[in-house]
TrEMBL record, chain A:
Recorded name of the encoding gene: purL_2
Catalytic reaction equation(s): L-glutamine + H2O = L-glutamate + NH4(+); N(2)-formyl-N(1)-(5-phospho-beta-D-ribosyl)glycinamide + L-glutamine + ATP + H2O = 2-formamido-N(1)-(5-O-phospho-beta-D-ribosyl)acetamidine + L-glutamate + ADP + phosphate + H(+)
Record has Hydrolase as a keyword: yes
Highest rank taxon of the organism: Bacteria
Name by which UniProt lists this protein: Phosphoribosylformylglycinamidine synthase subunit PurQ
Cited function: Part of the phosphoribosylformylglycinamidine synthase complex involved in the purines biosynthetic pathway. Catalyzes the ATP-dependent conversion of formylglycinamide ribonucleotide (FGAR) and glutamine to yield formylglycinamidine ribonucleotide (FGAM) and glutamate. The FGAM synthase complex is composed of three subunits. PurQ produces an ammonia molecule by converting glutamine to glutamate. PurL transfers the ammonia molecule to FGAR to form FGAM in an ATP-dependent manner.
Active site residues according to the UniProt entry: C85, H194, E196
Gene Ontology CC terms, in alphabetical order: cytoplasm
GO BP term, pick one: 'de novo' IMP biosynthetic process
Length: 222, 77
């Protein structure tokens, strides 16, 4: 399986995302923001960082990059897409996921190892996890407070689309402790914490994050 | 050419933590009596006369503001 990892100006975590893809047993493919080309990949990771320096709003400019036209088309056809941190912000700005990420309620940039609960295994990126599984992965963001109107949050909860929830204290004021959500079809997932930094106990707090990348191996389209 | 101003503000129901921080800091410069500050963005655009109001609202709603969390006002000067 070939999994694309997009690099925008200001992306930081593309190398770790590609490494996580490799650890999971897939082939990472570097994708460039200015290309209208997904290089025939089977899934896409939109990694973290500070694309375009967070100018205007985090993820706003990147969501209009040429490659995002292709990502949106592919997502509508069911291609698995994972947005991590800035990638989550980009997917929200692109309209692939509902809601928005606002500045942390405590104003501070939060950098810590964060416990999460995997609330749904009915997505392309969590199918290999067990429902209710707790994982420990790094969180590092200043604008990670998930917000949406009450109807949207109720719909996400009712449809089982809250995929990850913060445990052990809400780090940023996110509504309903929401750390990550999915699209209605479960193919597009976004989360603020960084599973790609937790794939090997040598370099991360755990290898709990690997399950996202192994999950997608069984979720490619046709 | 015309000058157009777009003011973008967080929606009333969105907690504006930056505005809150500014409110608290006002006490440090010895100002009392400001009960709330909300912080937004102010854009000044120079546009051709051919740009109609519908296009201006598209500019505001699709790029300058995020309709999920922000409201905007377009003003022709």
């Amino acid at each position: 399986m070939r999994i694309g990892v997009i690099t925008f100006p200001g992306t930081l975590d593309d190398v770790d995302a590609a490494r996580a893809v490799r650890y999971a047993g897939a082939e990472p493919v570097s994708l460039w923001h200015a290309d209208h080309d997904l290089a025939g990949v089977d899934a896409v990771v939109v990694p973290g960082g500070f694309s375009y320096g967070d100018y205007l709003r985090a993820g706003a400019i990147a969501s209009l990059a040429p490659i995002m036209t292709e990502v949106k088309d592919a997502a509508r056809r069911g291609m698995p897409v994972l947005g991590i941190c800035n990638g989550f912000q980009i997917l929200c700005e692109a309209g692939l996921l509902p809601g928005a990420l606002a500045r942390n309620s405590g104003l501070h940039f939060v950098c810590r190892d964060q416990r999460l609960r995997i609330e749904s295994t009915a997505t392309a990126w969590t199918g290999a996890a067990t429902a209710g599984q707790e994982i420990l992965v790094p969180l590092k963001s200043g604008e990670g407070r998930f917000v949406a109107d009450a109807d949207t949050v109720a719909r996400l909860e009712g449809e089982g689309r809250v995929v990850f929830r913060y445990l052990g204290g809400n780090p940023n004021g996110a509504l309903a402790d929401i750390a990550g959500i999915s699209s209605a079809d479960g193919r597009v997932v976004g989360l603020m914490p960084h599973p790609e930094h937790a794939i090997d106990p040598l370099t991360g707090p755990s290898d709990d994050g690997l399950v996202l990348f192994t999950s997608v191996l069984g979720a490619a389209v046709g | 050419m015309a000058r157009v101003v777009v003011d973008v503000m967080p929606k009333p129901e969105i907690l504006d933590v930056q505005g809150q921080a500014v409110t608290r800091a006002l006490g440090r410069i010895g100002v009392a009596g400001v009960t709330e500050v909300r912080q937004g963005k102010h854009f000044e655009l120079d546009v051709d006369d051919a740009i109609d109001d519908a296009t201006l609202h598209r500019i505001a709603g699709e790029l300058l503001a995020n309709p999920v969390i922000e409201d905007w006002v377009v003003t022709r000067k």
